[in-house]
């Protein structure tokens, strides 16, 4: 198995069985490291710049509902800590049934530790603050992995780390999905997997890996699964190319892996059980909704929307759900050339090539798509049942996030190869002197004689320029943001409190859902979830136990949504009024509240027709329904 050690640097292509491993000395962060981290922090601030213009009144223009959901999650973390409640479940949304937080993208590994800051700053500020920090932290751990374990040049590590943290696909998910930019543990997990075979350290390495895996489960399980698949491919690719070293280290590697798996299982057994067997758990998604979302072949050479070279109009042509591989043609061209030049002499480049090919093909989906058109050519997922565990929840296009990570590593390898051109052999990574009795190692293909090296100095600026020209068009733009109305003063000032006793709910109109009611979902988040609401934005079970988005519609919520869509109040019957009272009893409602809304007039007319005239209290319409529901 791979051993991450300077003497086993993959760039040298030395066989680990033929060299003496040396222990890497501890390094303190150098000035270069601090400058790199500072640059990543500034870039994270830049990406979130539009939010900071009015952090309390702006949400993502592309995924405003997701943005509000994650604000709600920060409020959930703070509420759970403040009230010492089980964070794996909440009754503050989808009342009275509640939401299984482990079965949703709950980000508990972030929202719980940051709960004190959320209480102090509010969920809107925490969202924007964390989003930029997560991008920078991912770039930082990527830089650490590359600079300490793979490349000689700190500039190469900086370029690779920047791509790992700010790749086009990651920036795309930053539009409302911070769980997909919270990848700062993943480089550490990869390094720990590759160090499991270190002699004499399998217990320590296994314990560290198990703790990292357990923590990542509470950040993003999907990205952990992708990382595990990538590590499997890396280990297999290494084993094929280094069979002797693999056989020698297999026992130690497997022992460390067993320790890691055992610790991770102990730490997460109950939460994982709760995810699949706790209240409001589900089995798969209705209709395998994600299974058909494959990657378009043209997307690989297209510039992403939120980059300086990107054009938002191209989305209308390709019509993709996500932009995980929108690398642009210069980067694709550079990657192909770099692989051709590096694979012969670099083990790391060969493994990167395998990752790119395997996960690019796997991401195609059931049918090959080309420039927005689904062809009749079968893709790999057409041969995979969408009923298989885990597979049923996977979106094929997201497999290309592994490709993005591999491209980031390839950029670092390419820059480092250019850096080493023209340098004296003594300045380059070397295989240590052989042990007594060993044959002298053969000269590496990467280490030409000094006169040859001098003649190749021109390759260094050419390599630097090629990498710069490929990545500069992908420099991210500030994430687009849109203005959103603040909660009514009646909500933010606590005017609702006399109307909502303990054990009862506030029913906002429209009722929150994954399609409607974005502003009313924020009422709950921005008041610290002090009152429970029906409906919401989450995944929960339907009557068959399959996962569906949002709460199953009741007659009254369906009537509200159809009235909003049509802009007119239908003819109401006594049955509609009876169902409304029954639904209010089910929701344990004590008050119905309608604030400012584009459809305010028709919604007020509808609710009045169902349960009677409202009162004007502060800046909202209020229906006190306690006399109706008992």
Automatic annotation (TrEMBL):
Domain DUF6311: 46-374
Ranges of Low complexity composition bias in the record: 432-448
Keywords: Membrane, Transmembrane, Transmembrane helix
UniProt-listed InterPro entries: DUF6311 (IPR046278)
Transmembrane helix is among the record's keywords: yes
Stretches the record annotates as Disordered: 1-26, 428-448
Matching Pfam families: DUF6311 (PF19830)
TM region positions: 34-53, 127-146, 155-174, 224-240, 252-273, 326-344, 351-370, 399-419
Protein name: DUF6311 domain-containing protein
Organism, as annotated: Micromonospora parva
């Amino acid at each position: 198995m791979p051993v991450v050690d300077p003497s086993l640097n993959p760039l040298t292509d030395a066989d680990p069985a033929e060299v003496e491993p040396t222990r890497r000395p501890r390094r303190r962060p150098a000035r270069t490291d601090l400058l790199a981290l500072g640059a990543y922090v500034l870039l994270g601030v830049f990406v979130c710049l539009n939010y900071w213009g009015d952090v309390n009144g702006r949400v993502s223009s592309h995924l405003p509902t997701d943005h509000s959901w994650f604000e709600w999650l920060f409020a959930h973390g703070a509420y759970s800590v403040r009230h010492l409640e089980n964070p794996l479940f909440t009754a503050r949304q989808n009342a009275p049934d509640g939401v299984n937080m482990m079965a949703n993208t709950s980000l508990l590994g972030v929202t719980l530790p940051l709960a004190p800051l959320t209480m102090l700053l509010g969920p809107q500020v925490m969202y924007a603050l964390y989003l930029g920090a997560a991008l920078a932290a991912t770039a930082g751990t990527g830089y650490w992995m590359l600079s300490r374990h793979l490349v000689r040049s700190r500039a190469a590590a900086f370029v690779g780390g920047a791509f790992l943290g700010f790749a086009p696909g990651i920036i795309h998910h930053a539009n409302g999905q911070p769980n997909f930019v919270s990848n700062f543990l993943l480089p550490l997990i990869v390094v720990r997997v590759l160090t499991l075979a270190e002699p004499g350290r399998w217990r320590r390495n296994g314990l560290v890996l198990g703790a990292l895996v357990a923590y990542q489960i509470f950040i993003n399980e999907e990205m952990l699964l992708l990382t595990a698949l990538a590590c499997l491919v890396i280990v297999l690719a290494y084993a094929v190319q280094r069979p002797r070293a693999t056989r020698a280290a297999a026992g130690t590697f497997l022992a460390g892996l067993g320790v890691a798996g055992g610790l991770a299982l102990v730490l997460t057994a109950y939460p994982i059980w709760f995810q699949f067997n706790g209240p409001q758990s589900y089995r798969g998604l209705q209709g395998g909704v994600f299974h058909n979302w494959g990657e378009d072949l043209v997307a690989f050479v297209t510039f992403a929307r939120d980059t300086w070279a990107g054009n938002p109009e191209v989305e209308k042509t390709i019509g993709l759900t996500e932009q995980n591989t929108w690398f642009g043609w210069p980067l694709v061209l550079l990657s192909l050339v770099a692989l051709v030049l590096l694979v012969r002499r670099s083990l790391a480049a060969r493994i990167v090539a395998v990752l790119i090919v395997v996960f690019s093909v796997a991401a195609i989906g059931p049918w090959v798509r080309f420039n927005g058109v689904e062809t009749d050519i079968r893709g790999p997922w057409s041969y995979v049942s969408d009923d298989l565990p885990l597979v049923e929840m996977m979106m094929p296009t997201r497999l290309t996030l592994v490709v993005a990570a591999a491209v980031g590593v390839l950029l670092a390898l390419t820059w480092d190869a250019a850096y080493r051109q023209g340098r004296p052999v003594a300045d380059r990574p070397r295989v240590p002197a052989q042990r007594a009795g060993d044959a002298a190692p053969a000269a590496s293909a990467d280490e030409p004689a000094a006169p040859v090296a001098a003649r190749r100095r021109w390759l260094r600026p050419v390599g630097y320029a090629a990498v710069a020209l490929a990545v500069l068009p992908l420099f991210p733009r500030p994430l687009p943001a849109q203005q959103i109305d603040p909660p009514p003063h009646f909500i933010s000032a606590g005017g609702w409190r006399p109307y909502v006793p303990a054990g009862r709910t506030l029913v906002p109109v429209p009722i929150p859902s994954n399609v409607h009611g974005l502003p009313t979902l924020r009422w709950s988040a921005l008041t610290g979830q002090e009152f429970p609401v029906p409906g919401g934005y989450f995944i929960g079970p339907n009557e068959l136990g399959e996962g569906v988005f949002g709460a199953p519609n009741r007659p009254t919520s369906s009537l509200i949504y159809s009235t909003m869509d049509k802009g007119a109040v239908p003819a109401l019957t006594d049955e509609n009024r009876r169902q409304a009272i029954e639904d209010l009893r089910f929701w344990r409602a004590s008050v119905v509240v309608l604030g400012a809304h584009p459809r305010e007039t028709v919604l007020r007319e509808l609710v009045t027709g169902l349960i009677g005239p409202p009162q004007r209290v502060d800046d909202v319409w209020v229906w006190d329904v306690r006399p109706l529901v008992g």
